[in-house]
Predict the 3D structure of the following.
Amino acid sequence: MIFLDNASTTKLDREVWSIIEKYSFDEFYNPSAPYYRAKEISNKIKDAKNLIIKALNGASGSNFIFTSSATESNNSVLLGQLNKRFKKVLISSGEHNSISSTITEIERKGFEVILINLNKDGQVDIDDFKAKMDDNVGLVSIIHASNETGAVNDIETLVKITKAINPNCLFHCDGVQAFGKIKVDLKSLNVDYYTISAHKIHGPKGIAGLYVKSNFKPYILGGGQQEGLRSGTENVPNIFAFANICERLDYAKNYDFIVKLRNEFIKTIRINENIIINNFANSSPYILSLILKGVNGETIVNALEKYDIFVGLGSACSSKKVGNATLEAIGFNKEIVKGSIRISFDASNTVEEVVEAGKKILEIYESLYNQVNRRK
Ligand code: PLP
C-alpha cells in the first residue's frame, strides 16, 4: 500500500499505544472525582497542557483547551468569541470547512463576514487584507498552512496589521496542517487562538485543542471541566498520548526529507504538460495540489485505489462537496478544478513509493485523457 493522503489523517504512532492502554485499563479514573488517584490524573492533565504550550512556544500565562476535534476548536472561536462591540469578522477565502461553514451562522447572529482574497501563490493577499481590515472588525481567522495547497500564510504580519488597526480585535489561526510540519512559534506569531489536531501528527483521532493567549468564553457548557472553559469529561488516554507526541515533535527532523519526497514526485510527473503542479513559493512541502486537465480528479483517485495507492481529492472532509473553494479563490475556473487531486506526504513514505505513485498517476491520466478526447 502506498498512502499519500497524510493530510487527511496519519497512522497512530505505536509508542503512544502503551499510554492509551495505561489510562484506559489501569488509571481510568474520572479526573473530576474527589479521591486521590483521580486528582493525580487531573494534575497530569495540567502538565499535559503545559507540555503542549511549550511545544507551541506559547506566551507566558497562556492556556490550552483540549477539544474533541479541530472542527470543535474552530467552531468554538468563530461562533463563541464574537464580540457585539464589533460588527465585522474577516476570514480568508482559503479556510477549511470547519471555518467557512460557520459563515451563515455568524451572519444569522447579526455580524458581517468579509472574505479576504488569495494571491496567485495561494496566500492571503496582504493588500486586500489591509484594505478590508478596520476598527469595526472584532475577529479574524486565517489558516496557517492550507489543507488544499500547503500555501503558508504570513500570520505574523497579518497579526501586526490587525492589532495596529484594532488592538481589541481577536486573531485566530487554524494551525492543523502547520503544527509539527513547519516552524510554529506562537510567541512570534502573537495570535490570540491557535487550533491543532492530534490525528494529523500521528496522534489518536477525537482529540485536538485550542491555544488561548488570554481570554476565552466557554462554548460547551456543563460540568465545568478544564477550569470551566470546556465542559465534558476529559478524554484522558488520548490527552496523554497527544501530549507525548507533542513533547517529541521536531518539525526540522523530517523537513528536508519531505522536500526530497515532494521534489522526486514532481520530477516524475512534470513530463506531462497537461498537469498543473501547484508548487507554490512559500508552502509546506507536505501538501502538493495537482490539476490534471480535462479529466475528473475523482476518477483518478478511484483508479489509483485499484493499485493500492491512496491520494486525496482536495480535503477529505470536503471531498463530498463539489468544487474546491481554495483553488477557485486562487483563480482556477470551476471546470479545470474538477481535475484536482491532493498528494500529501509523510516521513514514513519512501522515494521509491512516491516515484511509483507518480508513474501510475501519469499512466492512468494519459489513458483517461486519450479516452475522453477521442470521444470529443
Ligand atoms: N483545519 C484544517 C486545516 C484541517 O486540515 C482539518 C482536517 O482536515 C481540520 C481543521 C479539521 O480537523 P478535525 O478532523 O480534527 O476536526
Notes: DSSP finds 14 helices and twelve strands in the chain. The chain has two domains: 2-9+251-375, 14-248. Residues 2-9+251-375 form a domain with the Aspartate Aminotransferase, domain 1 fold (CATH 3.90.1150.10). The two ends are 35 Å apart (CA to CA).
